[in-house]
From TrEMBL:
SUPFAM superfamilies: ALDH-like. It comes from Salibacterium salarium. This is Histidinol dehydrogenase. The lineage of its organism: Bacteria, Bacillati, Bacillota, Bacilli, Bacillales. PANTHER family: HISTIDINE BIOSYNTHESIS TRIFUNCTIONAL PROTEIN, HISTIDINOL DEHYDROGENASE HDH. GO terms for biological process: L-histidine biosynthetic process. Its EC number is 1.1.1.23.
Length: 424
């Protein structure tokens, strides 16, 4: 993990799209097979890519029951507490339909309607991500989505882990498709004999999942094209190096493409944090993954001033931003681009991942410049409502026709004038 002096020649961007042509071709072939062969195509692709022959595509009642038998009470209590916190946060995001009226009888408004079907992708195989389930399912439920189809790749035994099944059950999810990769995305987007077509697909995944979501966008909506996880720690001379190092490693251990970056005004803190990273790294079970992440996508940048450091943070527009500085609230107003902002020493990124309540599905790879975290809004659509009275129509008719003719749309103008003449 190199320490780099910030100047105008330092590039803070990285290209995650290059070299994906082969994967794109594979994704298109997989989508085509699912569209052509439906359930059978899903089973064949699951055998090809996951090494599993599935007798049934969906989790059975016996599998649900066994999951609870294999799950410990302490873990269940932690899940239930997290669910309550996350649900409470998202309930505050709910928007109501609204209507306004004018004295001339005009009524204008907006109708908020939940989506009918949502598809939630949860990475699986050897891994278990109950937090991903909570962060995707809860805002959908809070929005009022009645039909949620979850999909996750099975392990070599054709099963999903107890943590995944119990979390889904605690949330009331009843349909889990045992499939992953581009084939699962295709099934959700186009439907099969047993998989209903959804309106929106959310959830993270590998490069094949990301490319598949991009390929089906337009057929369905998607949340975002999520890249590897990122963290930026903003530090000053008050920052504890051991805290900063631990938080950098919490992202580096995700995968080899994850990015862990510190921006600091203190060379001394930079040096001590680097030492702590090396010390703590040696004790991690996933140290090889974290090491690769730090070697290829990690850095500690030293700035001449806090203003320069904040500018660098806004250029990075990170998924996760920790303000591990003496007065984090004083800097909050200067942060323009970040998916989630963590203030102070005890607001470590894992607090947001698992317990606090805000959604951890966040924009990556600089897209926090224009994107937001997953929210209840992502699972609703809005319809405009307008009702003109005769009085309001006659008042505005000539102006409407005039604007229509500015655009060369005579039929538009006549559709107004025929009513005006009929009412006079």
């Amino acid at each position: 993990m190199n320490i780099i002096e910030l100047d105008e020649n330092v590039s803070l961007t990285r290209d995650l799209e290059s070299g994906t042509e082969t994967q794109r071709e594979s994704v298109q072939a997989i989508i085509g097979k699912v569209r052509e062969k439906g359930d059978q195509g899903l089973k064949e692709l699951t055998e090809t890519y996951d090494g599993v022959q599935l007798d049934q595509l969906f989790v059975s009642e016996a599998e649900w029951q066994k999951a609870y038998e294999d799950f410990d009470e302490r873990s269940l209590e932690a899940l239930q507490k997290a669910i309550a916190n996350i649900r409470s946060f998202h309930e505050k995001q709910v928007r109501q339909s609204w209507m306004t009226t004018s004295e001339d009888g005009t009524m204008l408004g907006q109708k908020v309607t939940p989506l009918d079907y949502a598809g939630v992708y949860v990475p699986g195989g050897k891994a278990a991500y109950p937090s991903t389930i909570m962060m995707n399912v809860i805002p959908a439920q809070t929005a009022g989505v009645k039909n949620i189809i979850m999909t996750s790749p099975p392990n070599k035994d054709g099963e999903l882990t107890p943590a995944v099944l119990v979390t889904a059950a605690e949330l009331g999810v009843t349909h889990i498709l045992k499939a992953g990769g581009a084939q699962a995305v295709a099934a959700l987007a186009y439907g099969t004999e047993s998989v209903p077509r959804v309106d929106k697909i959310t959830g993270p995944g590998n490069i094949f999942v990301a490319l598949a979501k991009r390929a089906v966008f337009g057929q369905v909506d998607i949340d975002m094209i999520a890249g590897p996880s990122e963290i930026v720690v903003l530090a000053d001379d008050s920052t504890r190096p051991d805290y900063a190092a631990a938080d950098l490693l919490s992202q580096a251990e995700h995968d080899e493409m994850s990015s862990a970056v510190m921006v600091t005004t203190s060379r001394d803190i930079a040096e001590k944090t680097k030492e702590q990273v090396e010390k703590q790294l040696a004790e991690l079970p996933r140290k090889d993954i974290a090491q690769a992440s730090l070697d290829n996508h990690g850095a500690i940048y030293v700035a001449d001033s806090m203003d320069e450091a904040v500018d660098a943070v806004n250029q990075l527009a990170p998924e996760h931003l920790e303000l591990l500085v003496q007065e984090p609230h004083a800097l909050l107003g200067k942060i323009r681009h970040a998916g989630a902002i963590f203030l102070g020493s005890f607001s470590s990124e894992p607090v947001g991942d698992y317990m606090a309540g805000p959604n951890h599905v966040l924009p990556t790879n600089g897209t926090a410049r224009f994107s937001s975290p997953l929210s209840v809004d992502d699972f609703t659509k809005k319809s405009s409502i307008l009702s003109y009275s005769e009085q309001a129509f006659l008042t505005d008719a000539d102006d409407i026709a005039a604007i229509a003719r500015m655009e060369g749309l005579e039929a538009h103008a006549k559709a107004v004038e025929i009513r005006r003449k009929g009412e006079k």
